[in-house]
Amino acid sequence: MGAEAIRRIGVFTSGGDAPGMNACIRAVVRTALHHGLEVIGIRRGYAGMIEGDFVEMDAASVSNIIQLGGTILKSARSEAFKTPEGRARAAQQLQQAGIQALVAIGGDGTFRGASIFHEEYGFPIVGCPGTIDNDLFGTDETIGYDTAVNTALQAIDKIRDTADAHDRLFFIEVMGRDSGFIALACAIGGGAELVLVPEAFVDLDEIRESLYRVLAHKRRSSIVVVAEGDELGGAQKLAEKLRPIFPDYEMRVTVLGHIQRGGSPTARDRMLATRLGVAAVEALLDGHDNVMVGVINNEIHLTPLRNTWSKKKTIDYDLLRLVQLLS
Ligand code: ADP
Predict the structure, then answer these.
(1) How far apart are CA 27 and CA 34, in angstroms?
(2) CA distances (Å), 152 to each of 18, 71, 168, 192, 259, in order?
(3) Hey, which of 14, 71, 73 would you mutate to test ligand 1's pocket, going by the most ligand atoms within 8 Å of its Cβ?
(4) Which residue ranges form the domains of the chain, and what is each CATH number?
(5) Ligand 1 pocket, residues with Cβ under 6 angstroms
(6) DSSP E strands: which ranges in the chain?
(7) Measured in angstroms, how far is the CA atom of residue 106 from the centroid of ligand 1?
(8) Among 178, 156, 142, which Cα is nearest to 265's?
(9) FRET partner for 29 with CA separation of 20 to 30 A, picked from 104, 125, 248, 308?
(10) pLDDT-based confidence at 218, cuts 50/70/90?
(11) Does the pLDDT at position 219 exceed 70?
């Protein structure tokens, strides 16, 4: 389908919600309207696409949302979209509604689905990286990551106060099932003594040695940041293993959980979401397709959708060294 033929686009948010998705929706809608396109909001991600849960978007429909967490279009996970029948139904619904191209705001699962859908039906799709995990190849940061890190840091600062008052050792679990971006940023920003991430396995002996060193040198509070996907099984399991080794030390576990997804997006996330939303629509109008828009070294980059999830974005391993050096 030629770019000139596009008159009506659909926009949706899918998978794990992330603060800044609304700012991205706003940018997509307003940019599309500016260029004379019609915009349909697809509610509840692929689930809503299959069911035809569509809503016409005008400029006012995205007023006063730039500061809101969550997503006004709602998000969902859809098992049906993983089946050929589900995707056929989705294609049918889009065709019936006259939607000729899509802007998908989501994470790697969303883009996996989008890649397959594109291969099968040739629908022009441009993705905007929206996930707190920051684990998409093709962009330095994803929408929601900065807010999640700042939310987690605020919590860690508060925990440090109470940890300090009682000379306790706190294990704080942050989100990141397959990637340690949030954990690493929180460890650096929160002045943690140790960080455990899925990308760098540290065995129990090494952890014990590190903690001995920390506890021997300062009778102060200590913070260990653990990514939920850590190989030792998360903060709770780690604390259970270490309690018998350090019987004189009080250990506490805090799992930060879903607070990391919520809240008003930071200025940085609003900027990123806005830039990417505008870039996504402009990319479609320029005839690009089956790509994700990202920001690398402060410039907009287009990456084939498939590469965003098939290639691994790596953490900066030097940051692990910094945590150790400063502990
Ligand atoms: P995220 O986009 O945040 O990574 P998920 O991994 O839950 O979130 O993916 C969102 C949705 O994308 C899934 O519920 C499913 O509908 C769709 N999806 C994920 N993987 C596939 C796949 N291999 N084939 C088709 N659709 C998929």
Answers:
(1) 10
(2) 14, 20, 19, 13, 8
(3) 14
(4) 3-144+265-310 (3.40.50.450), 146-262 (3.40.50.460)
(5) 14-16, 46, 77-78, 81-82, 106-110, 112-113, 116, 131
(6) 8-13, 38-42, 54-57, 101-106, 125-129, 169-174, 194-196, 222-227, 251-255, 291-296, 299-304
(7) 9
(8) 142
(9) 308
(10) low
(11) no
Q: Which atom of ligand 1 is nearest to the CA of 79?
A: 16
Q: Which residues are catalytic?
A: 133
| Residue corresponding to tokens 């883009």 | 111
Q: Is the pTM of this model over 0.85?
A: yes
Burial of 4 per CB tally in 10 Å (0-12, 13-18, 19+): exposed
Which of 49, 79, 112 for mutating ligand 1's site (highest number of atoms within 8 Å of CB)? Answer: 112
CA of 281 to the centre of ligand 1 (A): 22
Which amino acid is residue 71, in one-letter code? Answer: T
The two structure tokens encoding residue 130: 């929206």
> What's the token pair of residue 87?
């995707």
- Ligand 1 centroid from CA 273, angstroms: 21
**Predicted pLDDT at 2:** 44
**pLDDT tens-digit readout, 121-179:** 999 999 999 999 999 999 999 999 999 999 999 999 999 998 888 888 999 999 998 99
